Sequence to fold (316 residues):
Amino acid sequence: MANYRDPKLKVFTCNANPELAREIVEHIGTPLGNSEAVHFSDGECQIKLNESVRGADVFVIQPTCAPVNETLMELLVMVDALKRASAKSINVVIPYYGYARQDRKARARDPITAKLVANLIETAGAHRIIAMDLHATQIQGFFDIPVDHLLGVPILGKYFQDKGLPDIVVVSPDHGGVTRARKLAERLEAPIAIIDKRRPEPNVAEVMNIVGNIEGKTAIIIDDIIDTAGTITLAANALVEAGAREVYACCTHPVLSGPAIERIDSSKIRELVVTNTIPLPPEKQIEKIKVLSVAPIIGEAIIRVHEELSVSKLFD
Fold:
């Protein structure tokens, strides 16, 4: 553990992922700010800041994961409290950005909710965003304040490098994830394959065919979010049927809602590697799932922002 004792650096958290916040401050070597996010019986939330933040660079760690409306509201109220308490700067660390998949008008009269959330956070008083693996990189442009966009690929890539798997092929579960798959493939010095699928309706995927050579290889499927796990388990089963020796899967954000755990447990996936941007409750911690920590990279980003150093060094 480092020892970073700068009284002008303060780190707070709400209720979404306090364990990750504790890991981050342990990495930095600074105490976690004394605050409370409490809820009244009607569901309203109240933030209590139990220490002064006047003139401080404050970092608030809060992924807007499930229950997304509750965690988002906690974040907004926390930012407002810090602004009214005269914090010098309010830096919002969002390891997982809820509503990110509503980033464009897919049909007539669709809202662009990812942009609305950006507006809300900015209006509340945030000065900077530190996010991780945004579902769509253009969300950075939804903000009119600086956004530091951290990547999960270096963490996932190092895990698989250390594992030393033979004959790897990195698989993108759809065309949209090819750039992410290529970044992992470059780290593992492996070729890529693409699953060409169509989605008849939300959370329903139908595998069409596999582009690339996967026969006899160790396939690693990479995605940014695994939600109901329909896409990833269909892809794994299709890869095995097409001749892949074994299938691993990885993602940054384990949303894992609905039937996800059951699907993963009964699928051809040998191991699912995720990060702790979203906390996994005990009932989701099955043997197949390996959790890696993003605390070191977020901790380093916080120090670099506070000291006005380059954050892009963390991408190397």
